[in-house]
Fold this sequence. Notes:
The structure holds 2 protein chains of 2 kinds. Chain A is mainly α. Chain A is 90% helix and 0% strand. A two-stranded antiparallel ribbon of chain B has the order 1-2. A two-stranded antiparallel sheet of chain B has the order 3-4. Chain B has one domain (2-195, 217-313, 366-602). Chain B is globular. In chain B, a hairpin with a 2-residue loop joins strand 5 (437-438) and strand 6. At the A-B interface, helix 1 of A face helix 3, helix 4, helix 14 and helix 17 of B.
Amino acid sequence: MSLAIGLPLLFFLGLAVMSLCYLFMEACEKI
Amino acid sequence: xxxxTWLLPVALLVIATIVAFxxxxxxxxxxDGKYRQLPVLSWFERSLDSGPQNWKxxxxxxxIFNTALFVFGFLVLAVQPWMPLNPDAKxxxxxxxxxxxxxxxxxxxxxxxxxxxxxxxxxxxVFFCISNMFLSASVGFCSLVAIIRAFRGxxxxxxxxVDMWRVVIYMFIPAALIFGIIFMSQGSPMTLNSSYxxxxxxxxxxGTTDKGEVKKQTIVVGPVAALESIKMLGTNGGGFFGMNSAxxxxxxxxxxxxxxxxxxxxxxxxxxxxxxRMLRRLRHSWIIFSVMLLLMAGTIVWSICFDTLRPxxxxxxxxxxxxxxxxxxxxxxxxxxxxxxxVAGLPVDQHLGNLEGKELRFGTSAGATFAALTTDVTxxxxxxxxxxxxxxxxxxxxxxxxxxCIFGGKGVGMINMxxxxxxxxxxxxxxxxxxxxxxxxxxxxxxVKLAVLALLVxxxxxxxxxxxxxxxxxxxxxxxxxxxxxxxxxxYQFSSAxxxxxxxxxxxxxxxxxxxxxxxxxxxxxWDIATGLVIVFSRFLPIIAPIAMAxxxxxxxxxxxxxxxxHDDTPTFGILVLGTILIVGALLFLxxxxxxxxxxxxxxxxxxx
Lengths: 31, 609
């Protein structure tokens, strides 16, 4: 995995999984 | 022999309990805001206070703060080659190593797919490792405090940023200063120098150059004492050196080992009492504490009995060569023959038990004791090689991570215990036909759903990826041992990631390291990404759902206790909770325990024993 692809890809993967956690919080309210 | 084996674990449990009880009074006093602010600090606290928050605002702040930590950590590691405090010119880390390290440190996991002394500059050690160790430890702490306030029926759970400030400034910094001085007194380095070039006592021990000049040895140093203290107090576990607390700079003496071990116990112990003090139910917290202490004593005794008091089966003599089969899809018939040659009686004295991977300067049982404790309190630091534990002894750290509530990490361990409490009360209520109640509030379907949801994240995040990797080359190419022990290595890695523990069976090849590394572990990238994702989900989902559950439960009206109320401050309640933990834990994890360490124990020599 080259730096040019790997760094931005995994940076945004991290932001995406944190966003999923935020969506989970929203879902907890509706349970 | 008896005294030198059992004195250390007994002394640790007793002293940690004695320290934790008064410490809990201080923690409750600070978190209830009863302290007088120092003038110089009050401005910061006022600036951070964005006002009272409900459960969604508090949890949202927690997630936003951690997202900011992710961005900050990613940047610090990505610019390492150009930052100061890097005279050894530590280079650019591989993207997957950066991703894994950042999510690992921001979640209090500290699963290190790198070696700190090899791959990190002192700039990264200070601004990435140490800063994350203070902040990630405080996040779990604040989560528990939010749940306590919700249980008290308060509309506001406080303010996340003010709580973080209180934990860091009034708890971790003073404690880290005290323990840092203790570690310095024992010989831990505390310097911003990076390394020393020294002449070895034995000439040319490091070899010679092409010109015949004697090579010098490089000894890495740095702000070790500062990192070591918060590493243990915050149950972080990520070492300055790859060898972690087995390294003579991180843990120089038997005395430093005692304080290393004590440091990771006092806050998880104290938080149980803090829970009781803040809810004004100290007897209830004593019952929970007793259940946790009983489980912890069990894991320590198990670990010592099968490691310190048993020889290493790999070193015991067996006269004939043995052949056995392991599964291999590429071999004819799907089976591969593995032959173990005969081993003569090796000149190894095993009357002190399994000494492979142990540091005898700490005492004979220190490795087994530390292995049990570091996984019970979700620290993950190691002072012995986990991969070298006898097969059945390795069950002890695994059980600590699977149950994840034997004191556990600061705050989150107690939260996991509360999930078991809610489930236990619910089951008891179903058995006697009464509406289950906790703290005088009726537990409804909504609360049980959230508790079960939070509880099931952990086993799902262990069992699903372990099964996937065991079936693919990603797992089979990473393990260093055939058969059951290789499965244990994969199982341990995902257990450690999901429990936010951070220890590992180091035989597993998961290191990429520097971006220009020509020979990384062939499956490092999938391991970096998979364990990284497990770490994030297993950290935040079991924090979010319990905070929501506590808010919904706390909003209900309190009903007075009646004749049929299940009192939560009796030994009966403790037995109910203990039974719930053991039954749920056994149902979830016994099958993989049989496939891993238990199969290894009963397997062919020398892997069995």
